[in-house]
Amino acid sequence: RDIGSQRDRMVTEEEWLQRWEMSNIGFHKEQGHPLLQKYLDVLLNGRRGLRIFFPLCGKAVEMKWLADMGHSVVGVEVSEQALKEFFAEHSLPYCEEPVPEISGAKKLQSTSGNISLYCCSIYDLSSSIVDKFDGVWDRGALVAVNPCDRQRYVSLMITLMEKNSSYLLVTVSYDPNKHKGPPFYVPESEIKSLFG
């Protein structure tokens, strides 16, 4: 369970916002992630019209891809710039509205209604605000949250999942003593203990 020097590493919300402002977003994939395409059947499990959650979504192109397949997509991201870039880059009209339950939060929703992106801290969300999801695509969230917040993050994710949810999780494997993160190294044993 050794995560080396990363154990106490903290990345602030301001640092994430600055990365977006400086276009220091090497984690963003223009073509979508090949693992989602490879394991799409696992996520969908033969079901149609799912509600799929993208934690710490950035401007992930997979959101439009899944929405175009007929699924309802919900994402959360602290950077409003990222969310606006998503809609602009896909030429999707959207409307903005406040989220009354969360001070300062906004929801940006495609006018077609099938993509809803929340601009706030993920920890401000709850199932009473966003309901529950049939699937989760966690490509860069668990590896981005501070190591000290992993239990809090996973506990929240579990409350957002329907009973028959599918959760696709992508992590990275490397020597945590040679890279300070993010992305953070999450050992497989810790993933098993976090998700049970």
Record the SSE blueprint:
Elements: H1 13-21, H2 34-38, H3 40-44, E1 51-54, H4 62-68, E2 72-77, H5 80-89, E3 94-98, E4 106-110, E5 115-119, H6 127-130, E6 133-138, H7 150-159, E7 161-169, H8 188-195
Binding site for S-adenosyl-L-methionine: 16-27, 56, 77, 121-122, 139
GO molecular function, one term: thiopurine S-methyltransferase activity
Catalytic activity: S-adenosyl-L-methionine + a thiopurine = S-adenosyl-L-homocysteine + a thiopurine S-methylether
Q: Can you characterise this structure?
A:
- This protein has helices at 13-21, 34-38, 40-44, 62-68, 80-89, 127-130, 150-159, 188-195; strands spanning 51-54, 72-77, 94-98, 106-110, 115-119, 133-138, 161-169.
- With 196 residues, it is an alpha/beta fold.
- It has a single domain, classed as 3-Layer(aba) Sandwich (Rossmann fold), CATH 3.40.50.150.
- It has a seven-stranded mixed beta sheet, sandwiched between helices.
- The longest helix has 10 residues, at 80-89.
- 32% of the residues are buried.
- The mean pLDDT is 94.
How would a crystallographer describe the biggest sheet? 7 strands, mixed
Spatial order of the strands in the main sheet? 3-4-5-2-1-6-7
* Cα-to-Cα separation, first versus last residue: 16 Å
Rg of Cα set: 16 Å
The residue ranges in which pLDDT falls below 50 over 5 or more consecutive positions are none
The pLDDT mean sits at 94
**What's the level 1 CATH class?**
Alpha Beta
DSSP E strands, number: 7
CATH H-level superfamily: Vaccinia Virus protein VP39
Which architecture per CATH? 3-Layer(aba) Sandwich
